[in-house]
Amino acid sequence: MSARRGSRKWRPTLGLVVLTMLATVAALPLLGLSFVRLYENQLVRQTEGELIAQSAVVAALVARDLETDPARADLLGAAAPDASLPIIEPALDLTVDHSLDRRPDAQEAAKAASPAALALGERLAPVLARVQATTLAGFRIVDRDGTIIAGGDEVGRSLAGVEEVADALRGRFRAVLRARVSKHAVPPLYSLSRGTSVRVFTALPILVDGRVAGAVYASRTPNNVMRQLYGEGGKVATAVLVVLVATLGIALVFTRAIARPIHALVARAVALGQGAPVDPEPDARFGTREIALLGLSLDAMALQLRERSDYVATFASHVSHELKTPLTAIRGAAELLRDDGLEPGAAMSAAERRRFLDNIVADTARLSALLGRLRELARAERPGAVGIASLAAIVSDLRRRFPDLDVRTENADAWTLGLSDEKAGIVFGHLADNATRHGAAVLQITARATAGHLHVHVVDDGTGIAERDRARVLEPFFTTRRVEGGTGMGLGIVQAVLRAQGGTLELAAAGGVSSLGGARFEITLPLAREGETEHA
User: Fold this and answer.
1) Under CATH, which number does the domain 385-526 receive?
2) Gap between the Cα atoms of 145 and 110, Å rounded
3) 363 to 315, 350, 356, 438: CA distances (angstroms)
4) 101-146: per-residue pLDDT in tens?
5) Exposure winner among 125, 163, 244, 275, fewest CB in 10 A?
6) DSSP H/E element including 459
7) Which burial class, exposed, middle or buried, applies to 536 when counting CB atoms under 10 A from its CB (0-12, 13-18, 19+)?
């Protein structure tokens, strides 16, 4: 039930994942525009700081002029909360501060400015004009009552109703954001930015002898990155086009190199599962190296499974045949013994009964031997941990197990095999047993190493293998000693043990490494690596 639920679980396709990733990459430049607001906030504070510095200079000029004016007493207003202004740091924040409406127009002054104030304004007008031309900021100088005495075309009118100016006339600095009024239409790209729609206003009191003599009212629109982007519209469009082309190119490469090969692998796996033929040397054209290796591994695995399936089918046929023969003989003998004496004159002699019973015992012994070899073959085909066996120890074990066999070595004592002692005993024990059963008195073992493999030649001086039997000697269940109880599985077990450890067994040609004229077998195994330990 859980497996079915797992199969119904929604999972994104590779194409969807790739499309999402590519869309995210393509959207990164657009998402980066959100960080423009952070930069614009810094531009607003930079503008505020510059206005504060410029206003402080203008206020200092006005204060110095008033200090030498004989009529300054008529120009000073209420006492300021502090004799001097504290250090002023820019504090405006686009994300927090509420933007006020556009600056109210100057109103008719309730009280006309004094002649001394107007004279001061006339002296400051040229200075303010030069400052404004350089800084692109707007400056207004107001007297103690909020009446403009210098700056712009509103001289003589009052800004006392503007809240930031009112705060400055009470001796406190005030900075605000107000809606920007432009003579020109705002470009569409500017709508992405809030900084284009506001203007920074600062009102700095002018203090003389601890009293408020007026205020410097300054304003300027902060610099804006959108203006630069709009000015570089062609380059921006080119960059966007490059991003789109690069994204499409990546999608195309990814599809051809990964998505399409994976779909081909899926189709290949389905075809193999339905019995499609397996190429023993598959041509993997699957894009990347990793997917190509996966395709090769898939075909190699399918080929091994197919060969294994064929081997199992052939093996099952051989086993059934080998079991059928003794079982048929046992059944026939048992039926004859059962029917003995049922018909007049058909009674068996004691010798005949013994012969049938001996046949039954021999066939059951053959079945027992066959089943024992089958169990041994099953253990041999099961992969196990690689061990290390010394050829010198193997030779010593053979001499102990086969005392009538003269086991000789040549260039072998110093080598080790990538087999456990148990499996090495099975391999060389079967070869030695075959040699003795074919009349051998001498068994010679020779070893040599080439290209990472160890080749061990096992040669005896027995009757050898007939030419007609050489092609079948390694086939399962093939034996020339069936009458003597041979099962034909000994060499099959040897092959299974070696195959499980990456080795092979071959029947060598006559001559070669020894002058002995019997059977010649060559065992090939990967060289044992240092650090491998034996596992029982």
Assistant:
1) 3.30.565.10
2) 9
3) 21, 20, 11, 23
4) 999 989 998 888 888 888 888 888 888 888 888 888 999 999 999 9
5) 275
6) strand 453-460
7) exposed
